Amino acid sequence: MNEPAVVLDGVSVTYGRHEALRNVTAELPTGAIGLLGPNGAGKSTLIKALLGLLPPSSGRMRVLGYDVRESPLAIRARVGYMPESDAHMRGMTAVSFVAYCGELAGLPSSNAMQRAHEVLFYVGLGEARYRNVETYSTGMKQRIKLAQALVHDPDLLFLDEPTNGMDPKGRDEMLALVRDIATMKAITLILSSHLLPDVEFACDHVLVLNRGAVAAQGPIATLKGTSGRVFELRVKGGNASFLDAIRAEGLGCDGETTGVLRVYVPEQRPTQALFQIAAQHGVQVRHLRASVPSLEDVFARALGEPLDAARGKEV
Amino acid sequence: MPIHDQGYRHYAGDRALHGRGWWVIARHGMVAPLRERRFLALLLFAWSPFAVHAVQLYLGATLVRSAFFVATEETFHTFLSQQRLFVFFITIYVGAGLIASDRQSNALQVYLSKPITRHDYIGGKLLTLAMFLAAVTWIPAMLLLLLQILFSGSLDFVLDHPRLVPAITLAATLQVVLAAVTMLALSSLSRSRRFAAMLYAGLVIFAGLLDTVLEGVTRNTAWMLISPQNTLLFIIRAIFDGPPDNVALLGSAVAALVALLIACVLILERRVRAVDVVA
After folding, report:
1. Fewer CB within 10 A of the terminal residue: chain A, N end or C end?
2. ipTM value of the model?
3. Which residue stretches of chain B have pLDDT < 70?
4. Which class does domain A227-292 fall in?
5. How far is B41 from chain A (nearest CA, A)?
6. How many Å apart are CA B148 and CA B56, to the nearest integer?
7. Which residues of A touch B10 (CB under 8 A)?
8. What fold does the segment set A6-218 form as a domain?
9. Chain A: closest CA distance from residue B44 (Å)
């Protein structure tokens, strides 16, 4: 089995008195890993800690086999980082900016320039590579950030909200790039995103953080396919008592405000249990359909929040 | 095959060992201003005193045996003092945006996500400014000395003034280091290069004026310690002329500059971070 790309062992990071990460322990394999969590969950903090930019108050971290505390430069030489906020260098064209980043990462000047051209074509900025980065649109700035992270051909990419501010077409193209990087180029990536569909599309493994702690982790397919089934349910009458009863019986339930309930039935329980509870509470079942578990279900369960709250939240 | 597949290949070429990031930053920082005509004009103008002094040395060594034209240690002291004006303008032109612009465009997190340390970053930025400042202080001063040797046709002048080369080097180094470190620290305090420039200009001009006024009113030369520029001039004079009568004041002047440099280093240490931690 491959060595994990990232190993976190009891990692805590504090800002003054605020504990941004609390005793985080996880192993992230190679491939495409999604980093999920509500605002303030500690996603960006985790990425910065893995880059060696934020020292942990306790715990150990290993990235690509290197200890972060002991070898931050060796890690950064093999890692690419696409920050969340706009980040460029003033007065530079795209190609000179990316080449400069390549040189900073240790590439010889001529190789860095050649790589800059290649990478800019790869991210779709080939025609605009001689333009000043400050004249770029938001979507182009996202691409240039990806290009500077890729120029030195890293083994591991940290992408912090790579589709922020992009229009739907640009977002699709960026996600296609991200997926291509992970699958065709064999570069491990850790994708932090507030959009669950983005993570579901591009990643095959997920780490869910909540209030600085690990809420769930594992392959998305495994997490989605966990014990039990999911049903979409529409009922009439006695809604509140019915929901209480469902939960009291150990069945999960979300989506009260949308009108369509998503009910999780554990594997050992028969589907008929739903009808029995409905009958006991005088509720008519108008619609029942088996559903496919989504990452939203996983996320909602991991955070212990209703699904509609998870959907509406910037995670 | 999608089109973008044609644009990306894995890199199999050389990679430098860590530790040369400061040079990449400095080299890039030096090339960028040289592409600007205004800066080239400023550099050219900064060399005009050199041309005047070169003519003076030529006349003194070959044609006119007047005391006014003959080179002395004071000639080089005067030259370095005159260059203060250009040190001021070049410091503002090149230095104000060195860190402020990076902070404005969030470039610090790009820099520090590469295999370079904060010290590499600061060192590279410092070297950028220091090289330009040396180009208008130490280099023309040493060239003047070389011209003096060539015009006079012997090494007698240098042999007669053995302290001159170290004095020029020390005085120019102090000028360069003080200006570069102070400007870099002020640049790190802001996201606006204009604001950083105003801070530096304020520090130089306002402190100088305040010193002049207070010295005039109180007749106490110790007020110069509030002006880094006047303190530096006092030290440079001591470098060329020897220790002044008031040795204690010289000690205080050196201590004041050292304190300023330490304060600047502490500011840089605190402000140059990829992550702004607001506790």
Report:
1. N
2. 0.89
3. 1-7, 64-67, 276-279
4. alpha beta
5. 20
6. 10
7. 153, 185
8. Rossmann fold (3.40.50)
9. 23
